[in-house]
TrEMBL record, chain A:
Xref: InterPro entries: KdpA
Upper lineage: Bacteria, Bacillati, Actinomycetota, Actinomycetes, Propionibacteriales
Membrane topology qualifier: Multi-pass membrane protein
Keyword terms: Cell membrane, Ion transport, Membrane, Potassium, Potassium transport, Transmembrane, Transmembrane helix, Transport
GO cellular component terms attached to this protein's record: plasma membrane
Its job: Part of the high-affinity ATP-driven potassium transport (or Kdp) system, which catalyzes the hydrolysis of ATP coupled with the electrogenic transport of potassium into the cytoplasm. This subunit binds the extracellular potassium ions and delivers the ions to the membrane domain of KdpB through an intramembrane tunnel.
Protein name, per record: Potassium-transporting ATPase potassium-binding subunit
Subunit and partners: The system is composed of three essential subunits: KdpA, KdpB and KdpC.
The keyword Ion transport is assigned to this record: yes
Cellular compartment(s): Cell membrane
Similarity comment: family membership: Belongs to the KdpA family.
Chain ranges passing through the membrane: 6-25, 66-87, 137-155, 176-198, 247-267, 279-299, 366-391, 412-432, 475-500, 521-541
Domain of life: Bacteria
UniProtKB/TrEMBL annotation, chain B:
Residue ranges of the TM segments: 20-39
GO MF annotation list: ATP binding; P-type potassium transmembrane transporter activity
Keyword Ion transport among UniProt keywords: yes
Pfam families (alphabetical): KdpC (PF02669)
Keyword Transferase: no
UniProt organism field: Nocardioides alpinus
Gene Ontology terms: cellular component: plasma membrane
High-level lineage: Bacteria, Bacillati, Actinomycetota, Actinomycetes, Propionibacteriales
Protein name listed in UniProt: Potassium-transporting ATPase KdpC subunit
Keywords from the UniProt entry: ATP-binding, Cell membrane, Ion transport, Membrane, Nucleotide-binding, Potassium, Potassium transport, Transmembrane, Transmembrane helix, Transport
């Protein structure tokens, strides 16, 4: 077995397993969000929280619930982090400093999981499991709820409501994320991931002291990948042998990262009653993902960098048990979804590899995107694509039986401007400050790439990093936290307003003049719109960083 | 309009707070404790697979250790010398002159130490890993070190090479990832086999 054959078989098996999960999991999720029955445990949750599960919410009310839930989540998590010394199993560690806890709380509530702290030296076990891991579940569930609300906007006609946020949140958590996490955690345990509640200090064979750090890692690792969160229990994230001990657990983690975003395209098709639409959306994601994987793998396996040539392979920042193939695959999976877990140092990737994973995030987290966020992200791009097509032929654009008029395009335009504005203004402001150069871990264009990567990752809610950048200054803690918060809540509110405006409309019957949106022609059109939008927005910034480095 | 929105927000925030508390009990306590219980009951490796010598834990088979001296196989370079409280890669960029200098320096150092040509030093001996805690080295790097370790431990090179083969973790399921030699287990085996060893 050569590395190349092993790498190709790995990718093939991954695709087979995702395909096998596609229909059953996708249809199961569609049933979860369309069923009128409440489980007994859910009724208990509604009673304890005082929620009327059968009350429907309009767009504004739904959005208010999401914003309120996020703000309460941030305050609650900050309290746990700042006050962790008062919690059991605090490992003798002090509370987190204020700005770091603000950054961390925003990060986990927004499904970003950007980390300006190192878990093993900063956090006790209770803060990790009762604070961070809870938001791993809830932030992913919020993403799914928003996606489902937008789908309902397309499905419903002359309706003032989009569903009930609390019901969608509870069902996504209890019927989808929790059961799958339990299964995943058991598999990870069997693969050697740690789940203990004690640190042990030992003398190594050569006589050095070493702490065998424990923790509820397996339970957190499962939802971290499945919920596209990505915040590592340890600083080294999924490169750490206690989070990801073997190539087999690594494969499982890549599968967990991709399975929900991929299957949700089936959920989309099933809920729309138009399954080929789900397949078309998956097709767009697959095309972009395949190009990204091919470029990254070529760059990493071929060691196309100065360091790669000097060492004979691009193994800086990579673990022996994974090698280049499995590291490239993980890097593409984690940045194409909004996960941000890493099993290798992205800062040390080759210029083309590191540049490609950066572009994956700049695409807006839609290849295949975060749990739920990928669905609403790509539907917004699809509206943009039918709008462009409509302009070309001079017809009022329609998508899935809904007219796309000025009101919808206003929401779409604001949506597509929000993240790029946060990324570019954030990066520009940081670069203009004199102390940013000292925070960079690398000289030249690569230092610029570190800052660009940071704001791209934050605003797109990915959470991975070019980790050489020291991000503990108040300026970076606060501005990156704002990028995460606005990059999450502004698009969500816009999507819900868009969904509300679509639900209010009647259905336009399809005619001979309607542009079909499930055909290869439209798939190509959508790929083109996404690539052009990303290119126009980010090319100048990319030219200063990874492109300059790759050509140097 | 705004006051209406704010009233709604504060009303919803109460439901939000209750929801957060209920979910924290379920997901933040119930779930991890249940997984911990399952780990205790079903598998014997949830504690990080400690390696014991005479009943004394000397490390974990998953976590690399720092080895100096001719009698040991050396692990990969680690930016923090295998300190588990600071797991991290070097984060040096692919064109960083410091990284290029470190690679050159390590190449010369390893070539001198093992008495081989600088061109024969494998990439994993020249680069730090993703965690700084890599428990493995490549089979090539292990075989490069075998003659030195054999001599220092009064073993034949063949004996040591057999130990390397015995402590090589193959690809997962035969095709996942890459083979690696577990340095801690290999060093333990070398010490146990050495004349006068335990």
């Amino acid at each position: 077995m050569t590395d190349t054959l092993g790498g190709l078989v790995t990718i093939a098996l991954l695709i087979v397993l995702l395909a096998a999960a596609y229909v059953p999991l996708g249809d199961y999720m569609a049933r979860v969000f369309t069923s009128t029955r409440h489980l007994r445990v859910e009724r208990g949750v509604y009673r304890l929280t005082g929620v009327d599960p059968d009350a429907e919410q309009g767009a504004r009310s739904y959005a208010t619930s999401v914003v309120g839930f996020s703000l309460v989540g941030i305050v609650g998590l900050m309290a746990l982090l700042v006050g962790q010394a008062a919690l059991p199993m605090d490992r003798g560690l002090p509370g987190m400093p204020w700005w770091m806890s603000f950054n961390t709380a925003v990060s986990f509530v927004t499904n970003t999981n950007w980390q300006s702290y190192a878990g093993e030296s900063t956090l006790g076990f209770t803060a990790q499991m009762a604070g961070l891991a809870v938001q791993n579940f809830l932030s992913a569930a919020v993403g799914m709820a928003i996606a489902v609300a937008l789908i309902r906007g397309f499905v419903r006609a002359r309706s003032g409501t989009l569903g009930n946020f609390w019901v969608d949140l509870t069902r996504a958590t209890l019927r989808i994320l929790l059961p799958l996490s339990v299964v995943a955690a058991l598999l990870l345990l069997a693969g050697g991931v740690v789940q203990s509640f004690a640190d042990t200090t030992v003398q190594t064979l050569a006589g050095h002291p070493q702490v065998l750090t424990g923790g509820p890692v397996a339970s957190q690792e499962a939802i971290k990948e499945l919920g596209n969160n990505g915040g590592g229990f340890f600083n080294a994230n999924s490169a750490h042998p206690f989070e990801n001990p073997t190539a087999l657990t690594n494969f499982l983690e890549v599968f967990l990262i991709l399975v929900l975003p991929v299957a949700l395209t089936r959920t989309l098709g099933t809920m729309l009653g138009h399954r080929r639409q789900g397949v078309a959306v998956l097709g767009v994601m697959t095309i972009l993902w395949s190009v990204s994987l091919a470029v990254t793998t070529w760059a990493e396996v071929g060691a196309h960098s100065a360091a790669g040539r000097a060492a004979g392979a691009a193994m800086e920042g990579k673990e022996t048990r994974f090698g280049e193939w499995a590291s490239a695959l993980f890097a593409v999976a984690t940045t194409g979804t909004s996960t941000g877990a890493v099993n290798a140092s992205h800062d040390s990737l080759t210029p083309a590899g590191g540049g490609t994973v950066l572009v994956n995030m700049m695409l807006g987290e839609i290849v295949p995107g975060g749990v739920g966020a990928g669905i609403y992200g790509i539907l917004v791009m699809a509206i943009l694509a039918v709008f462009v097509a409509g302009l070309m032929v001079g017809r009022t654009p329609e998508l899935l039986g809904k007219k796309i008029s000025a009101r919808q395009m206003t929401y779409v335009a604001l949506y597509t401007l929000t993240t790029p504005a946060l990324v570019l203004v954030g990066t520009g402001t940081a670069i203009a400050r004199s102390d940013t150069a000292e925070a960079m871990g690398n000289p030249g264009g690569h230092g610029f790439s570190e800052v660009l990567y940071a704001y791209t990752s934050a605003a797109n809610n990915n959470g991975s990093a070019f980790g050489g950048l020291t991000v503990t200054s108040d300026f970076l803690q606060i501005t990156l936290a704002l990028a995460m918060l606005l990059g999450r809540l502004v698009p969500i509110v816009l999507v819900l307003l868009l969904a509300g405006s679509l639900a209010e409309q009647g259905k336009v019957p399809a005619t001979a003049g309607t542009l079909p949106t499930h055909t290869p022609l439209f798939v190509g059109m959508l790929v083109g719109v996404i690539v052009i939008m990303t290119g126009l927005t980010y090319f100048p910034a990319l030219a200063l960083g990874p492109i300059a480095e790759a050509l140097a | 309009m705004l006051t209406h929105l704010l009233t709604d927000l504060s009303r919803q925030s109460l439901a939000a707070l209750r929801m957060l508390l209920v979910m924290t009990v379920l997901l933040g306590v119930g779930y991890p404790v249940a997984v911990w219980g399952a780990g205790q009951a079903l598998v014997d490796r949830a504690d990080g697979q400690p390696v014991r010598v005479d009943g004394e834990v000397v490390g974990s088979r998953l976590i690399g250790q720092q080895f100096e001296g001719d009698e040991w196989f050396h692990s990969r370079p680690s930016p923090q010398a295998y300190d588990t409280l600071a797991s991290a890669p070097s984060n040096l960029g692919p064109s960083n002159p410091d990284l290029l200098a470190a690679i050159d320096e390590r190449r010369a150092e390893v070539a001198t130490r093992e008495g081989v040509s600088p061109g024969d030093v494998p990439p994993d001996a020249l680069t730090a890993s993703g965690s700084g805690l890599d428990p493995h080295i490549s089979p090539a790097y292990a075989l490069l070190q075998a003659p030195r370790v054999a001599e220092a431990n009064d073993l034949t090179v063949d004996e040591v090479e057999d130990l390397v083969a015995a402590h090589t973790d193959g690809r997962g399921l035969g095709f996942l990832g890459e083979p690696g030699v577990n340095v801690l287990e290999l060093n333990l085996a070398v010490r146990a086999s050495a004349p006068g060893g335990d």
